[in-house]
Amino acid sequence: MRLKLILIVLLTAALLPAAAQSQLPETPAAKQFSGWLAAFNSGDRETMLKFLQGNFPGRVAQIDQMMRFQGQVGGFDFKKVEESTPTRLTGIVKEHNSYAFARFEITVDPAEPHQITFLNLRRLEEMPPPRTSEAEALAALRAKLAEESAADRFAGALLVARHGQPVFQEAYGLADREKKVPNSLSTRFRIGSMNKMFTAVATLQLVEAGKIKLTDPLGKYLTDYPNKDVASKVTVHHLLTHSGGTGDIFGPQFDAHRLELRTLQDYVKLYGQRGLEFEPGSRWAYSNYGFLLLGVLIEKVTGQSYYDYVQEHVYKPAGMTSTASLAENETVPGRSTGYTNGPGGDSWHPNTDTLPYRGTSAGGGYSTVEDLLRFANALEQHKLLNAQNTELLTRAKNIPGGVRYAYGFFDQVEGGVRCFGHGGGAPGMNGDLRICPAAGYVVAVLANMDAPAAERISDFVANRLPEK
Fold it and tell me: Most exposed residue of 169, 255, 300, 354, measured as fewest CB within 10 angstroms of its CB?
């Protein structure tokens, strides 16, 4: 996920009464949020850029992603405050372009000029839609997909399965707009951060085999890691839960070296001297670099490349024949072209100039909705890990900040139904996988266009399917 405004679907009944309103308090955190909201809602790139430069310099490099996001949601209306201190504010906003709401959290530096240190929005809805019969839910889904694809808000593929067997599978839109190639169920879509699920499974396999321990520091295995503070303090558990303070990989350095970063070690050479952003275990902050390091760890412990290991130990036993992370300059039959929109929302163009040389253990591979179902089935049938370690993999950990994150999987309760999985998003790509064990459903959605194209469809159907 290149955008730090991570959209996590959280549904809570009666969370936001329709008439609930409040005023922003007179605190540094609230003033900064008010300034960010005004700049974001303006839809003007220069206004947003000026605000970031003065108040949130750590996100200047993500201005274009932020403006694409603004084009998708149309801005936000402030609704109410939930918690407020001088340096931290949480509350609720509503999207302009939909009925969806989001919970925001912002923290600022205690010292003047109180620059923003963290900003996160998690998507939710005011009230869960009523759960219906499977037939009614799928009929509503079919109508929704027709509407979204006709409006050019969705192009991709969707699969819904119950007890391991598909009950709905359709594809919409074009895999290649120039050549008029349609998407199909076998189209390979770039999946962004969904690679993290495969990396987490591979890591837990090594735990199950007794080759690594979750409590071990990174430096026990990467003995020559450049930054000794990171090597000695960050554990495998921290990396798997985004609680290690290891930071991101995207920004000016990545943009300057994008096509030179060809191996996992190339990333370590570029970022390995960097120190910690916070004390490991003290809070949650999404870290692509943390999962990149897990890939390096897998290579060190197994003596194989990350790509060979997941091919042999994850994809093959799951029966995933269309999933990999081959380089972008290699011909991959059926791989779709990703399309990203301009800030104005009316200029779809290929995302070619944003893509890394190759996907990594943090994200950037490709898959199909059919392969994602095979992966979900293999997990639930314990073909990849035993029952104990599957539970360890997918059950949320106690992480400061309240994010329900397990090991490479989000673990959420949606309208009374527990689902685990992971999404992925970057310019021109969006995907989501949800595995709901008690209800027996799996939902896999992949799109070759900007977020939240796939996530909105996943939300729509997952929240309507019956509980059992």
Answer: 255
